[in-house]
Amino acid sequence: MQIVTAIAIGFLLAGAIKIWIRLRPPSSLPRDLPRIPLYTVILALWWDLSNFEIYNRWIRAPLEKHGAVCVFHTGRWNVLVGHPGLVNELFRNEAVYSKAGNHVRAPSTALGALVGDNIVNSTQTNHRLYKSVMQPGLQRRFDAAPFIEKSRILVDRLIAAQKVESHRGVLVLPWLQKFTLDLVAVCFLGFEMKALNGAPVEQLLTQVKPGVFHPITMKFPAFDRLWWLVPSRRRIFQLVREFDHVLYTTVRQHTRSNPPGLSNMLSHLLEDALQSGQITDKQFRSNIIVTLMAGHDNTEFLFACGMMVLGRNPAIQDRLRTEVMAATGAEPAPDALSRLPYLTSFIYELLRLYPPISQMFNRMASRHASLGDRIPIQPQTSVAWTAYGLQTNPQIWGPTAAEFQPERWGSTVPEIQAAVRRETVRGHYIPFSAYSRKCPAQEFALLQVRVTLFELVRRIRWTVDPQAEIKMSSGTHTFPIGLRVIIDELDALDAVKV
């Protein structure tokens, strides 16, 4: 009995030592950088703080002073960079600061199992391969018809939902998820998902997302190594496998049955690469999943933030509606929409204050380096960046950095576009990342936002439900949890009068 007790104590001590070694800041971290205490991670989870609250409470002041800080995330200590010069250096030197996604950083997690090695988080060599295969499908010229059709169905569903929710506002995130999934499926994967009609794939994904993005396993991925001991985690891993199988089977069926004329469809390009041996079956699966996930998440969350801003600021909503209706009438001509200055500045300001990805922990030093010739970085050190921190830094954007002011970008489209390019080059504005890893589907996202905002302001007026309990998300993505809006349908006469 004493031997068994001694062995048990030994295992406990070994486990405790291992945890202590894992949680304490390693000596390889830059000595001169402030360390954000580990207890802040625990408190943030306990108090259910949003990512914005965490940043403003504990990170903003030391990061703006020093340009970088050390923070704990994804089970390890990271150097979080928030100075524009340092961020640009990080982006430019991919050979030194290579991508390392969750399949590398946290392979035992449900998220790591879901996304695998893909075009977003692959190393330089694999990224070149994926880009050569996928770029024609991501950057082709898109027909506006599916955007118009799906956005009109979205508005129909919101109006119908408001009639059901007669005493309170409509919960918008579920509808925005369905809408963005439908567009990604038809534009990139070559099939009609019909999520707005209650498709099984969308219902399955709705169950998967809360589990793979669980705040505890995102901060402490080691918990997922014991997934088989926890029934809820066993269920999440099972759902991940089911979702992977359903999506893979659906896409393969459509790529085989659709005519050859869809050769620039992303799913067909990946199918051709799979058949020719350029990529493996696992790489095909991972890139299909990341296309669907990243392709819908970022615009879904941006729309939600946009509806929140417009629902809280009726003057901005009315101004947007007036400009859109005066220029285009009842049909959203994409070229005409791209020439509207207030719509353009509204979108860029929305991306500034509410970047869909507020921070990204997916870089790792491949060798000894020196950030800004002053921050020593040891090999295998995880390096991250913050878009929210850069884009709300008053040292860059002035005393109104935290305020929503579309006018800051300019009054004409050429002036606005020049300002965006200038701030991007300076490293002040990175909602789409930058350099070789700049979002390849940026134009798809902007077209989607323009057309959908047109359809929303043309047909409905909305305000944020005063009874709704809204909080911003706690993970790396930016979206308002619990957002409900009260919707009033506009007839044609109302729209003209605005």
Structure, described:
It is a single chain. The strands form four sheets. A five-stranded mixed beta sheet has the order 1-2-8-5-3. A three-stranded antiparallel beta sheet has the order 4-12-9. A two-stranded antiparallel sheet has the order 6-7. The protein is globular and about 75 Å long. It has helices at 2-23, 39-47, 51-66, 84-92, 102-105, 110-115, 124-138, 145-164, 173-189, 200-212, 215-219, 231-257, 266-276, 281-312, 314-328, 334-337, 341-353, 387-391, 394-397, 413-425, 442-459, 492-497; strands spanning 68-73, 76-81, 97-99, 170-171, 359-365, 369-371, 375-377, 382-386, 460-464, 471-472, 480-481, 484-489. The protein is built from 22 helices and twelve strands. It is of the alpha+beta class and 498 residues long. The chain has a single domain (2-497), classed as Cytochrome p450, CATH 1.10.630.10. Helix 7 (124-138) packs across helix 13 (266-276), helix 13 runs antiparallel to helix 14 and helix 14 (281-312) packs parallel to helix 21 (442-459). It starts with a helix and ends with a helix. The mean pLDDT is 90. Heme binds at residue 439. This is Putative sporulation-specific N-formyltyrosine oxidase Dit2. Keywords: Heme, Iron, Metal-binding, Monooxygenase, Oxidoreductase. Its cofactor is heme.
